[in-house]
User: Fold this.
Amino acid sequence: MSSLKAAESGFSRLRLPVGGDAEIELWRQSPLKVSGIGDMMPVVVAGGFGKRMNHGAGLALYLAGNGFDVYRYDTLDHVGLSSGCMLDFTMTRGLLSMRTVVDWVSRETGSKVHVVAGSLSARMAYRLLAESDVVANLITIVGVVNLGATLARVLGHDYAAESHESLPEVMTVEGHEVRARPFWVDVHENKWLGKEPCRDELLRSHQPVTAILAKDDLWVDQGEVRDVLTAQSRRQLGIVSLGGAVHDLGRNMVAARNLYITVCSAAMGFEGRTATEPEEPSFQMVVAQSLYETRMQRAGIAGN
Amino acid sequence: MDKQIDFIVNGERLVERQVPRRRIVCRTGAAVELPLLAKHHAEAWRESRTADLSSLRLSDIVAFLYNVGQNWKSREYARRRVYIQDLVAYLGYSQKMAEWEANWIAMLLSSQAAMYDAVAIELGDRHILDAWIKREESEVRAFPKGQTLHVCAGNVPMSCVVSIVRALLTKNTCVIKASSDDLFTPYALAGSLMDVDSSSPLARALTVVHWSRDDDSEEPAKWAAQADVICAWGADEAMTWAHTHRQGETDLLAFGPKRSLALICPDVPWDDAAEKLAFSICAYDQRACFSTQQVFVVGDSEGFIQALGQALERLGRFFPKGVHRFDEIASHAIAQREAVFLGHDMVSSQQPAEWTIVRTPAGRVPRHPLGRFIYVHAIDRPQDVLPHLNADVQTLGVHPWSSALSIRDAAGHAGVSRIVELGMNNIFRVGGAHDGRYPMQRLVRYVSNEMPSEVYPKQVAIEINQYRFAEENRFVEFIP
Amino acid sequence: MMNDVRGGIIEREFNACGALDSIMFSETSCFDLSGSEQQRMRADLAWEAFEYHRRACGDYASYVERLDGGAVSEIAQIPVYPVSMFKMRPPCSADEGSVEAWYQSSGTSGLKSKVPRDRLTLQRLLGSVRTGLHLVDNWSEDDLAIINLGPELSEAGEVWFPYVMGLVELLYPTVSVVRNGKLDTDLAIRSMRDALDHRKHVGLVGPPYFVQRLMQALAQQGVVMSAKERLTVLTAGGWKRHTGAAVARHEFMANVLACFDLSSPAQVRDAFNQVELNSVIFECSNHQKHVPPWVYVGTCDPYRLVPQDAGVEGVLFYLDASATSYPAFILSDDIGTVREGRCACGREGLRVEVSRRLETRDSHGCALRMEKLYVEP
Assistant:
């Protein structure tokens, strides 16, 4: 039986200052094996809304197990171990967190980076793709392209159409409370709403993208995704559609495993390792790692 | 309506209708009610204790028991008839099996010669309970230890009778804790002594009570505390109880769980062997310690299995299987499925759960469901049975009997208690030991009246005078 | 997997999970499906699993052939084999390399069952726990804290029951209070107090004997814990070898309600599982154990082990389609009853009541210790 030990060796925590007193908590999982083809680009993983870094333990382990150096972070003003709280969450602060981490990792490693982003973070990543020259490619997981439409489905109400004064003090998104007015001000002022800004951003970028979709995703319109992603015809584009999967892929352990394999395949493909099937860590290792990180996350939580 | 049973205290029935009673549902679903063991029972027992068997001679005891046995022998004896009815109605015995058991009780009680022989063999001399017997440089007499407690098992009614008779022959008084699985035998036996002469010390030496295995009151422990010897029969639970509750000086005669095997050697008529084996399987529906659970056949086992199946089928017609509980029936069926899964050959009765024979590689036995279920193992030589023997094996039945001679030393070393002719498992021959000892020895105290100094020891032809030896410093001269 | 190249775009489509996993990991509770829907799912999944294991497990295939040549016309007739086989010749449908571990029973009778589990089988076990908890409540990770009256996962090793209990920490923040095999009641009490102070709800999970020991410790220390509606006590594992301390279910519940000052009997639940079964079966608020739609439970008669109608007490058997590394078509050592139709909790479907363990020859006059009898092949 494989050991129930976490991959504690090669695991490290860092705090990135972000101006003022704010800090981003960053976790690094070094490669668990040598890739065999020399240094590969590091991977930055951005979790979806409401997710903490430990929710990405499995994915990090799969990537590290296939030779990647993996960095994860908790967004500012979000649940998790970075500064700020969920009440103050905005898309722009999320993008700032992502850009800070990506730039830091690129500087530290002297390399461009793979970015893996889920759900709402994917929407931020599409913008970062247009602005950054250190993002080599992007893998999105149930990535949002039309923020307004998705949030309307999630919340059951189209707050985008509301006037500032009629917005509630707080809106509850997937069980988390977010101050509505600052959020929507940011959405409008910084052009996060709708699919057109997303398409425009993707037109300005050319890096390869692999979009992983959940076929039964009620929050992300698959047609809109294709529409937005195919706007830039000079891009190497992969679309993987997972049957039997819903938006919250992490909830379904079986689907999640296939997701991790797919992400690894895509990242390895970007490294030219198309002939190799990704290796999988054992279930016990995934459990051990998840527990290890979950305990760490929970120990670090203070009302977050 | 539930059958009402009363405790017997010092040979008298204690009729109590106003006390809390326990209801026990027996194997057939019919129920019995009897008193809940309480403080006043022990008090009543202490107050009315008069029996003192030490003044009786062995011949008085044997003669009395013989009279009891003669009643049991009579088919018209009311108590025998009720006993048989109870075994059928409550324990689910077939009529034949119940009569068989009553006959065995009669046989045991009437076998005067066997009783004298048992005393002679187990204690050394049949007069030793009544007189001082010369033994080399001493005269020895066996005295009763005093008070015995018998924790009876319910799988073999006769075992309760054997235990009590041993105690009475050695002049001990008896408290008998009836098994929840057989509430009838000790009461019937005690009643039959009262029928002969209720004022007899032997009848008054018997007290029959009951408590359940989950009785956590202090009452059962009090009865154990009174005993000089505890004779415990049954499963691990009974043994543990007895070990836990005996006081410092109390002796424990434990007859714990055992299993039994059979060995069949070649060149014997299969039919004969099959009949004998079938009997040892079917008696007590295999619940006895001496019931054969596995048989090792030297040579071709297939032909033997055919013969055994026929023998079991025939025996089942005139010695039908008793009532079995849901769980026992299910265990039988599950064991059959185990055999199918493991790919073992299996032969079974047309009627479900009557009997089953499974042929498996030697030694590989899943949980044994009993209830006329036999595992057959083919081996090459008689000696191949030896690795499968250990101290858990009480009886090894062999056929032919002569095949015991080549393996009995090794079997004894391995821990087997007795080696018998196949089919004789339930008959404990005079002179044989029981689970490795002579039980009566543990029911007596040997007292020695040693010879005076004027009687010379062997190898020392001089009267012993230690004062003079010390004065003359001559000790060393007398060391052989 | 489909590859579809449209003008430079590479598209692939494949099933990330099967029908069973979609049901199991769905956000909506499978127990809210209608009885007929559950029945249809149950049948489909059972047939699929039967065909799969017949192909993948030689021992099982041979067994099916020996039993009437494998003629099966309804799922209740799918051949089941005794759980004792896991002590003797554990069947396996997976190749050795994909078996994560051989999980063992606690082994109260000496010999232990050993059950091979691969990744998917283990994932589905955890899925059954998550699904089953829907019958209790719909807590998020931040809502609930668990006090596990068992060891944490690393100490549980391959012993099944503590392993399953330890896995719950993946779902909710958990403090495990058995350390080096000993129940630390002081730690349990401190952790419960802390959890009640900081979390919306607390789950006390463990064998009834340990819950009882905890209650005794509270009484001895004179500690009053008034949890009202904020505590759920979930027992599992039965009394095992502590049968001497066992109390009747209603008495146990009354003690728990009183000790923790709970608001409702619905806050005391039980869950059932055994190492040979890959799904945990939870109780609803009406204290009925609802069987998930990937498991079929039936009873059979003691003579020929023929399946019986619902409502008739018998030997329980299970067809658990969630296991892929071994055929979880088991004939248990338990006696019970299966019920259909609508439960008082409002849900439809199959429910199981486990009444008692089958009494083996240990209750006979001359019982035998299994470990001394059994000789390894």
Notes: Chain C touches chain A through 40 residues (CB under 8 Å). Confidence is low (pLDDT under 50) at residues 362-377 of chain C.
